[in-house]
Amino acid sequence: MNKYVDVLLPLAMKGTLTYCVPSHLQSLLKVGARVVVPLGKRKIYTGIAVRLHSTAPQEDIQIKDILDIEDVQPIVYLHQLKFWKWISDYYLCTAGEVMKAALPSGLKLESETTITRNDDFDGDTLDEKEWEIWQALKDKSLRIADLQKSVKGNILRIVSGMAEKEVVLVDEILTRNFKPKTIPYVRLTEAYFDEQRLNRFFSTLKRSQKQESTLLAYLDMSECAAALTLHNRSLLKDVSKKQLLSHPNASDTALKGLKDKGVLEIYDVETERLKTQVQVEGIGQRALDEEQQRAYNEILNAWDNRDVCLLHGVTSSGKTEIYIHLIEQALASGKQVLYLLPEIALTTQITTRLGRIFGDKMGVYHSKFPDTERVEVWRRQISDHPFPIILGVRSSLFLPFDNLGLIIVDEEHETSYKQQDPAPRYNARDAAIVLAMKHGAKVLLGTATPSLESYHNARSGKYGLVELTKRHGDVLMPEIIIEDVKELRRKKLMKTPFAPRLMDEVRSAIANKQQVILFQNRRGYSPVLECRTCGWTPRCQACDVSLTYHQSIGKLICHYCGASYDIPMACPNCNDTELRDMGYGTEKIEAAVKACFPEARTARMDLDTTRGRTAYERIINDFQHGKTDILIGTQMVTKGLDFDRVSVVGILNADQSLNVPDFRAHERTFQMMSQVAGRAGRRGKRGLVILQTRQPDEPVITQVKENNYQALFENQMEEREFFHYPPIYHIINIYLKHRDEHVVAEAAKQLASMLQPYFSGDILGPDRPAVARVQRLYIRKIMVKVAPNLNTRSVRRTLLAARDNLLVYDYYKTVNVYFDADPL
Ligand SMILES: Nc1ncnc2c1ncn2[C@@H]1O[C@H](COP(=O)(O)OP(=O)(O)OP(=O)(O)O)[C@@H](O)[C@H]1O
Ligand SMILES: [Zn+2]
């Protein structure tokens, strides 16, 4: 028998911990099941059993017993554990951090300290404060946090004193976050399931008519007569409380009365919370057009000798239709499909589109769902009837699949596939390829604007490449008109944030019952407030950035730490009371739109208007059904959305993304502009895009205008090669954070010099990043460029060892050092 188990805990510590399995649990424990284990003196955690064995660890360590087994059957498959391991190796973090990201919280138990009164003790000798606590615990155990609500003052010390005297008992209980959802049902009690007894009871009811009619309603709905005749209580039909109370003769008080008299009882039935999609009869899939059919065949051919294929198809070429046919084909061969989307905004439309075809075969998994629903999807995937299709955002990679045949990565170029914080800082597109490999599954990357990485892999033959150059239904690509804002300002023609041509086009679009999308990639009212006299601007106290003015809530907000500040009455520097707002955020654009086009109905889609769970859906549906005329938004409106009546798209400030100090600035600008332009004129008439810029001569602006991805690719690849950037080189960034700027600066210098001999010229920094302090921590960054001929395994080992060597020094021990592999 295996006496020991290695347990993975959802913590940032390295490796696993070994525990002893008590003999009565040994035959029950399986790899992949959750176990409850003690850690340190007081903490209790849920971990995953990753290895069972009989090798005793070194003798001097005292091995603790596991406390319990949570699952009879594994909740994580072995291949998932291997996938977690790959992620932690590649992205230089711990497997515990991956576990933490992978499992929904409801599958991880929390330990909380609970206090219970020891009733063997009589309370006579207690002092006043102790007596208060004793009284508060009269009927129930309480968590310290809850106890604090009824007893004032600092009670921790008093409680610990009482615990020492054993007046109260302190223990850690496990609270399960996931409680199955239940619905109350009503039924006749066992005692009254008897015709004679029931009749006698009715005769006592003469004076309470309401109870009589409620009971009669129940008996009718449950088809009680038949059950009584056959003397079989299990034949009673299920009647929910809600159903009963919707009967015109039934009432809630009467039901309570019947319950108190012991005639009816209420019991809970667990329900599946998941709303499944409803298939629409007769929708089925649409036939592919000729071009799409060619692409479809080419994809299948490409998969004959490669696992990954890139589908590069212009906006509105019908990539989604091709995905639908590929899904159909995978299902027909009995395989599961994972459909990855970069953003929740997009899932709304795609869920509807796919739901109508695949109905309840499809499960949806995303971060706006309550955790309980995510647990349900997880449990469904390890049951014997898992969803054949999962549609989800990046974390759905971690769901259990046992028969995966196809992964579709829609909008593969999207940066939101990359998790920024906390670890694991993984890219779901890249990890999807590794996941597919472990299952022998195929991958389709789809986009109108490929990332340079994917296009390079396709051109070099590593991936298959399939292109679609025409829109479905022979609709032309939109016409793009460049407006030189600098010139217009000089001629005093820009009186609003909209060029005169844009004003005209918006007006005529609205007059013709068409719709408009205006793109401004900044939320809030204005990105900077400035004192008119001395130029002072309010900044965050915890971060090294200026605050964004949000007019709707009348506050200044830090977009890095979320802190909010009141708007100063006067400049603290010179006392001038006039602060002016500089630059445009979506709020200010919305105000300008209302002023310029009072006849139009407008909506705004950005982080601030989409916090609620259904907010996206509402905004998108309203626009789709023509309830709004102008949609203003950040990059959320740029991708994947499919509307019928958008004839004009306005890009209000193309320079903003162009002037970011990042080697990917051109690539990003091209992608964002082309994507938002692609929302225009998707049906029938050719769409129009007005692109406002101060730099009309930038090559990337011309590339967008001509929809010339090839030119962008060639031109950018030259730079990337020359400067040793991806996709030729790999980048691993090292971040160091500390409260003390001097310590972090010294640590960064030390670390860089340790790495210098290994990477020589391909190490940049340490530098102060653009925002060099966030949440009171000073930041330094070292960029390591990994040449294609280096052994990446040994590179990783070198980096990890260097960090360990640095952190041995007492002076640097408290510096937080982490890695970001393939940063975006
Ligand atoms: N074969 C087809 N039959 C009928 N309608 C189609 C067909 N192919 C595409 N369409 C319609 O054309 C529109 C654009 O297609 P789709 O949304 O699939 O394009 P896409 O390539 O995914 O675009 P984007 O890159 O902008 O997301 C959709 O409304 C779709 O319903
Ligand atoms: Zn801040």
Automatic annotation (TrEMBL):
Residues 300-468 form the Helicase ATP-binding domain. Initiates the restart of stalled replication forks, which reloads the replicative helicase on sites other than the origin of replication. Recognizes and binds to abandoned replication forks and remodels them to uncover a helicase loading site. Promotes assembly of the primosome at these replication forks. It is an enzyme of class 5 (isomerase). GO terms for cellular component: primosome complex. HAMAP family: PriA (MF_00983). It comes from the Bacteria. Residues 566-720 form the Helicase C-terminal domain. GO terms for biological process: DNA recombination; DNA replication initiation; DNA replication, synthesis of primer; double-strand break repair. This is Replication restart protein PriA. Zn(2+) 2 binds at residues 540, 543, 558, 561. Its EC number is 5.6.2.4. Belongs to the helicase family. PriA subfamily. It catalyses: ATP + H2O = ADP + phosphate + H(+); Couples ATP hydrolysis with the unwinding of duplex DNA by translocating in the 3'-5' direction. Component of the replication restart primosome. Signal peptide: none annotated. Pfam families: DEAD (PF00270), Helicase_C (PF00271), PriA_3primeBD (PF17764), PriA_C (PF18074), Zn_ribbon_PriA (PF18319). CDD domains: DEXHc_priA, SF2_C_priA. Keywords: ATP-binding, DNA replication, DNA-binding, Helicase, Hydrolase, Isomerase, Metal-binding, Nucleotide-binding, Primosome, Zinc. Zn(2+) 1 binds at residues 531, 534, 571, 574. Binds 2 zinc ions per subunit. Its cofactor is Zn(2+). NCBIfam families: priA. It comes from Pseudoprevotella muciniphila. GO terms for molecular function: 3'-5' DNA helicase activity; ATP binding; ATP hydrolysis activity; DNA binding; zinc ion binding.
